[in-house]
Amino acid sequence: MVTINHETVNTSFADPFRIWIYDDFLDLKQAKQLCEEFPKATDEWYTYNNVFEKKRAIDDITKMPDIHRQTLTKFNMGPALKWLETTTMISGLIPDPWLRGGGLHQISRGGKLDIHCDFNWHEKLKLDRRLNVLLYLNDDWHEDYGGYLECWDREMKECMVRILPKVNRLVIFETTDFSYHGHPEPLNCPEDRTRNSMAWYFYTNGRPEHEKSEAHSTMFQARPNDELSEEVEKFREIRSKGRV
Question: pTM of the entire structure?
Fold first, then answer.
């Protein structure tokens, strides 16, 4: 297993799926402002609170600070798309103006996001989801706070890459039915801290034949030592059909 902590890296992995990591991605002043002005979740945010996920999210840019709205919009524009296509060798990338599932994410102490593969089809746009792009905005983030992004093999036998969500770290990875990822260990940060990030998802009109499957929502996976029950397995099936 490879663990990426605080040391500055610009690297990529092909296994367990294609991942790219860029540190110090934005201008320092912009990254600092994004951290300082990251909003606290309100009743207008989505609340995910179930056995697999405990987090908050908002995709309505009209309810975000200007700096976050501008950053989200800029990364959905042509120059960023060109850079993403060059980096990932996926041509014809299309941004999501609705930011479905993306936008701002926030997780409080005790929160988590179990290992999963993401929804693979955008019903409104009728497009295939191909890339996840995450920008972490957690200044002075201690390793013992946890919140590592974990990337697991397709057999769900072991975590192969762990990435600390430190400030100004951009993580890109391909979206397939086997790009299993999440942060399954409950967050151990102080009560006054949260794990904050921005998320973009990118699409294409069609996808490689070997990646095609039935449309599905988020599909959570059990780790080898996770406790299983009939109730949990039933909810796993329900969650694969849509947000709850």
Answer: 0.96
